[in-house]
Design brief:
alpha+beta; six-stranded mixed β-sheet; single chain; seven-stranded mixed β-sheet; 496 residues; binds adenosine-5'-diphosphate
Length: 496
């Protein structure tokens, strides 16, 4: 009989369930979208019941459509949108507020206070992060203040959790209050070296320890699925943040290996081995996974506007009708004719960190046409990713030999070839591009013995497409010089 593993991929806009077989092939997949709630400008929330119900529906439905007998399912792994913050009553399990989503900026004033108090250095050194409203810590602090919950929290009546925690509590018999080390490392409350909650941050944000979950391994049996959900108990054997899971699903098990996910934004993560790297360019240090109590670390950087630049061409500029059309149009000309686009719609992140930078298209001549702009938009995704790769290479003193890619825009072969050319290294797309879900399935399968050890796991990853650089060093230097000059011209704009 075959063995199967289910990955639950609880994302920002949808909840998915994917069934993999023991060769890590996708057997069935189901997802349900849920509502985004915007109570005020800059605020983003999710209804906790919607998160839970869509996830349970996706799980039940994927099992039904696959026709697989429940006894053949060896384990369930959970991966999730990160940093999103929930609070619930320990006795009743009732959520006390909507989930505050990672994108939500409401706690910016709390972050400003932490900076004023001089905590930036401590935050970097201890949590690997930069002080930002993005992470869970300030969101949790805000909730305790806003709902006046400090006394109840001290008495242990309240549970805090990220989405992994919330799902584990609600899906596993006995309601364990746990989170895994990767999710903990996104709270801005966790010491990633010592692997424990950090008292300085808890004090600074006035958070009692009694609200915090126990931190468990990324791969390991936490408990059994509550039989009321599928009618039988199945081990829940992995919890991991989505980008960490994708790094695992991409087979980046050795230091120096990296993956880039090309979605709305791009997420680049590089395995840095058994030590966190400290970054000179403001990249984040994070726990990649914790297995058998041992941490592997990663550097992380993100491009704010990746595939979103293509959406902009389609929805605002009406230069294309479908995202995929951008490839044919880009290929219709030999180069951009000196045109560069810097899609700094919301400022620039690492390595520039200029919130006053704004979108720029530069180098226009009378001969510039639609194709040049479309091509320049695609190239900008690769240039921004290249800047991140180079920053990582500098931080850890090693040049990458390959970049593994996934996400919606990795379907664009022009973009992937340009990425290889501008990096001067191989770009590889795997056979299974559901890498986030795959990572969770592998981590869960590893915990229950579907795969014996990391050697067996290593054999699973397969490439589909491999692109080698077709341009030389001189071309690369010149192209990058033009890009960096264009970035310079986009900077500081919104200050004027
Ligand atoms: P997310 O998970 O962030 O929603 P996806 O991984 O689904 O993102 O990727 C969607 C993004 O990829 C969109 O921004 C879209 O514009 C872009 N995209 C999808 N297909 C292509 C393509 N063939 N060429 C360029 N961009 C694409």
């Amino acid at each position: 009989m075959h063995t199967y593993i289910i990955a639950l991929d609880q994302g920002t806009t949808s909840s998915r369930a994917v069934i993999f077989d023991e060769k890590a092939r996708v057997v069935a997949m189901k997802s349900y979208e849920f509502e985004q709630i915007y109570p005020q400008p800059g605020w983003v929330e999710h209804d906790p019941a919607a998160i839970l119900n869509t996830q349970i529906d996706a799980l039940r439905e994927v099992v039904r459509i696959s026709g697989i007998p429940l006894e053949a399912i060896a384990a369930i792994g959970i991966t999730n949108q990160r940093e999103t913050t929930l609070l619930w009553d320990r006795k009743t399990g009732r959520p006390l507020y909507n989930a505050i989503v990672w994108q939500c900026r409401r706690t910016a004033p709390i972050i400003a206070r932490l900076r004023e108090e001089g905590l930036e250095k401590h935050i970097k050194a201890t949590t690997g992060l930069v002080p930002d409203a993005y992470f869970s810590g300030s969101k949790l602090s805000w909730l305790l203040d806003e709902l006046d919950l400090h006394e109840r929290a001290e008495r242990g009546e309240i549970c805090f959790g990220t989405v992994d925690s919330f799902l584990a509590w609600n899906l596993i018999s006995g309601r364990p209050h746990v989170t895994d080390a990767t999710n903990a490392s996104r709270t801005m409350l966790f010491d990633i070296r010592k692997n424990e909650w950090d008292d300085t941050m808890l004090r600074a944000l006035n958070i009692p320890r009694a609200v915090l979950p126990e931190v468990v391994d990324t791969s390991g049996v936490i408990g059994m699925l509550d039989p009321s959900i599928l009618g039988c108990a199945i081990p829940v054997a992995a919890l991991s943040g989505d980008q960490h899971s994708a790094l695992f699903g991409q087979g980046c098990y050795e230091p120096g290996m990296m993956k880039n996910t090309y979605g709305t934004g791009c997420f680049l993560l590089m395995n840095t081995g058994d030590q966190p790297a400290s970054s000179k360019s403001g990249l984040l240090s994070t726990i990649a996974w914790r297995i058998g109590g041992k941490c592997t670390y990663a550097l992380e950087g993100s491009v704010f506007v990746g595939g979103a630049a293509v959406q902009w061409l389609r929805d605002e500029m009406h230069l294309i009708e479908r995202a995929s059309e951008s490839e044919t149009i880009a290929r219709s000309i030999p180069d951009c004719g000196g045109v560069y686009m810097v899609p700094a719609f919301a400022g620039l992140g690492a390595p520039y960190w200029d919130m006053y930078s704004r979108g720029t298209i530069i180098g226009l001549t009378r001969g510039t046409g639609r194709a040049h702009i479309v091509r320049a938009a695609l190239e900008s995704i690769a240039y921004q990713s290249c800047d991140l790769v180079n920053a990582m290479a500098e931080d850890c003193g090693r040049q990458p030999t390959e970049l593994r890619v996934d996400g919606g825009a990795s379907a664009n072969q022009f973009l992937m070839q340009f990425q290889a050319d501008i990096l001067g290294c191989q770009v590889i797309r795997p056979a299974v591009i559901e890498t986030t879900a795959l990572g969770a399935a592998l981590l869960a399968g590893l915990a229950v013995g579907v795969w014996k050890d990391m050697d067996e796991i290593r054999k699973i990853w397969r490439q589909d497409l491999s692109l080698v650089p077709q341009k030389g060093e001189a071309w690369r230097t010149q192209a990058l010089a033009g890009w960096h000059e264009a970035v310079n011209r986009s900077m500081n704009w919104a200050k004027q």
